Amino acid sequence: MKRLVILGGGESGVGAALLGKAKGYDVFLSDKGKIKDKYKDVLNYNEIEFEDGHHTEAKILNADLVMKSPGIPDKSPLVKQIRNKGILVVSEIELAAKYTKANIIGVTGSNGKTTTATLIHHILKEELEVGLSGNIGKSFAQQVLEQDYPNYVLEISSFQLDDIVDFKPHIAILLNITPDHLDRYDYKFENYIASKFRIALNQTKDDYLIYDADDEVINDWLKSNKVQSTLLPFSLTKTIENGAYLDKEEIKITIDNNQIIMPTNNLTLEGKHNIKNQMAASTVAHLLKIRKQTIRESLENFQGVEHRLEHVLKINKVQYINDSKATNVNATYYALESMESPTIWIVGGVDKGNNYKELFQFVNEKVKAIICLGVDNEKLMETFGTMVDTVVETQFMSEAVKIAYKLAETGDTVLLSPACASFDLFESYEDRGRQFKDAVRSL
């Protein structure tokens, strides 16, 4: 019996453990931190051996295969030991994909993954049986075990792509590439770029790569590297023969001389970046022969995702917006770009080597006050201190929201768009977003 060791007892780890056991592996799961009770219950119920609070090397280094959670870096001494022993290390998507014949649509990019993957699923589910997984919701491995849909939309991070071997989506979407997570890539942007392009690594000419033709980084990489897949670019500025582009107020999508046209005037998601997300999603739907009417209606009734430019409440004619999912500068760029009124901006958290320069134009134009919410706000204070009249710092969400409430005047917007990870003060970006919404509701 082959031994499968799983590092990390979160959603993907526990899902992989269940699938591994069902497929006849001797499974052992190990987590250096604390495993949540709900996951322990599942492991106990299924009689899967596990440990938390530490790693027992003797029980790990005898593995035939190791699946590691995307949160564990390759630099960790244990992972190095495993690799030195010649044991194969894979991600959950690699493991789960082996056990399904489903048509896989993989979505990656520095920003917009969740929105685009959720939107694709929202359109496809009207006419196809389709699961949504990867970085969202119930783990891919568990869905393969329990539902095994004929189609899956997977939101895939670079960390998950780092540990694929044979994994190949039939349709890959690469939304954009901007510097993010550089702490995991030796602070080399080119390493991170190569990691994102792994989504097309195993594709053949019968597969598709949908990508942003306005993204310089993507274009440059494609000029000097070969991909096998059929390319379907999308653009806001160029005319695209095979793919999607914006022509005045309409999205035009052409695949094999078959064109569909989508008006953009009734779309629910605002902002230029969302037109791109909608182009990518509509291209997938058109490829999979979804009816034009279905695509149009789905785009018009899509509600967006939680913590992404989410309108929370209007109080005294001040709009409060939760964009906690903006964990990097580029995401915050989109948020500030779409602001149309004087903005009080709540920013800060764990800085992943951020360069805030690209935000200067919007901060000068639109931001009237900055509230720094982090354990260490020094870099933010230095960067923006002279740009706006009011810069305040705090380490409590409730206090940040109260300060914003005091500073705001009729017609202003209060925007939580941190541009940073959340782990200094919060459990996750979701926890941060919910605390913001709770604080706003209790004003």
From TrEMBL:
<dbReference type="InterPro" id="IPR013221">
    <property type="entry name" value="Mur_ligase_cen"/>
</dbReference>
<comment type="function">
    <text>Cell wall formation. Catalyzes the addition of glutamate to the nucleotide precursor UDP-N-acetylmuramoyl-L-alanine (UMA).</text>
</comment>
<dbReference type="InterPro" id="IPR036615">
    <property type="entry name" value="Mur_ligase_C_dom_sf"/>
</dbReference>
<dbReference type="Pfam" id="PF08245">
    <property type="entry name" value="Mur_ligase_M"/>
</dbReference>
<dbReference type="InterPro" id="IPR005762">
    <property type="entry name" value="MurD"/>
</dbReference>
<keyword id="KW-0133">Cell shape</keyword>
<keyword id="KW-0132">Cell division</keyword>
<feature type="binding site">
    <location>
        <begin position="109"/>
        <end position="115"/>
    </location>
    <ligand>
        <name>ATP</name>
    </ligand>
</feature>
<keyword id="KW-0436">Ligase</keyword>
<feature type="domain" description="Mur ligase C-terminal">
    <location>
        <begin position="307"/>
        <end position="420"/>
    </location>
</feature>
<feature type="domain" description="Mur ligase central">
    <location>
        <begin position="107"/>
        <end position="285"/>
    </location>
</feature>
<dbReference type="Pfam" id="PF02875">
    <property type="entry name" value="Mur_ligase_C"/>
</dbReference>
<dbReference type="InterPro" id="IPR004101">
    <property type="entry name" value="Mur_ligase_C"/>
</dbReference>
<dbReference type="GO" id="GO:0009252">
    <property type="term" value="P:peptidoglycan biosynthetic process"/>
</dbReference>
<dbReference type="InterPro" id="IPR036565">
    <property type="entry name" value="Mur-like_cat_sf"/>
</dbReference>
<dbReference type="GO" id="GO:0071555">
    <property type="term" value="P:cell wall organization"/>
</dbReference>
<keyword id="KW-0131">Cell cycle</keyword>
<dbReference type="GO" id="GO:0005737">
    <property type="term" value="C:cytoplasm"/>
</dbReference>
<dbReference type="Pfam" id="PF21377">
    <property type="entry name" value="MurD_N"/>
</dbReference>
<keyword id="KW-0963">Cytoplasm</keyword>
<comment type="similarity">
    <text>Belongs to the MurCDEF family.</text>
</comment>
<comment type="pathway">
    <text>Cell wall biogenesis; peptidoglycan biosynthesis.</text>
</comment>
<keyword id="KW-0547">Nucleotide-binding</keyword>
<dbReference type="GO" id="GO:0051301">
    <property type="term" value="P:cell division"/>
</dbReference>
<keyword id="KW-0067">ATP-binding</keyword>
<keyword id="KW-0961">Cell wall biogenesis/degradation</keyword>
<dbReference type="GO" id="GO:0005524">
    <property type="term" value="F:ATP binding"/>
</dbReference>
<dbReference type="GO" id="GO:0008764">
    <property type="term" value="F:UDP-N-acetylmuramoylalanine-D-glutamate ligase activity"/>
</dbReference>
<keyword id="KW-0573">Peptidoglycan synthesis</keyword>
<protein>
    <recommendedName>
        <fullName>UDP-N-acetylmuramoylalanine--D-glutamate ligase</fullName>
        <ecNumber>6.3.2.9</ecNumber>
    </recommendedName>
</protein>
<dbReference type="GO" id="GO:0008360">
    <property type="term" value="P:regulation of cell shape"/>
</dbReference>
